[in-house]
TrEMBL record:
InterPro entries: HotDog_dom_sf, PAAI_dom, Thioestr_dom. Keywords: Hydrolase. The keyword tRNA processing does not apply. Pfam families: 4HBT. Belongs to the thioesterase PaaI family. Residues 46-121 form the Thioesterase domain. It comes from Hymenobacter setariae. GO terms for molecular function: 1,4-dihydroxy-2-naphthoyl-CoA thioesterase activity. One of its GO terms (cellular component) is cytosol. This is PaaI family thioesterase. The keyword Hydrolase applies.
């Protein structure tokens, strides 16, 4: 998938990523990148980047990255577990996340997301997400309640 393909696929609106100002910026065979503003939408009461906003950026990038490794017409990726270590506080500017696949299997994927301050390059947060790969119901099939 190209960056344009991913942006189109991920463009279902509105989403949490939209609310937080998350933008996709790059995709290669090896990683997916995006960025998020550090402003009133993403601050905690002390005026620092909220840890939950960092986790939202990490999950957004990991989830989209995982989707690039499957046939999205037949399967979906859903989060099983995410963790994050918050390393450095940020008050303003932008943070950039890079999601890299650590494991891509048939039923699970594991992605590492490194979030850095866009201007200084300082490590802000390191996160890891485990994704389950699930089959979508066949078109026209009936599900039981």
């Amino acid at each position: 998938m190209t960056l344009d393909d991913v942006k189109i696929w991920a463009s279902h609106r509105p989403t949490l990523a939209d609310s937080l100002g998350i933008e996709l910026t790059d995709i290669t065979e090896h990683y997916l990148e995006g960025r998020m503003p550090v402003d009133g939408r993403t601050h905690q009461p002390m005026g620092l980047l909220h840890g939950g906003a960092s986790v939202a950026l990490a999950e957004t990038l990991g989830s989209i990255g995982a989707a690039t490794r499957i046939d999205v017409t037949r399967q979906a990726c859903v989060g099983l577990e995410i963790n994050a270590n918050h390393i450095k506080g940020v008050r303003d500017g932008w943070v950039r996340g890079r999601a890299t696949a650590l494991h891509v299997g048939r039923s699970t994927q594991v992605w590492e997301i490194r979030i850095t301050h866009e201007e200084t390059g300082a490590l802000v947060c390191i996160s890891r997400i485990t994704m389950a790969v699930i089959d979508l119901p066949a078109a026209g099939s009936k599900t039981q309640a």
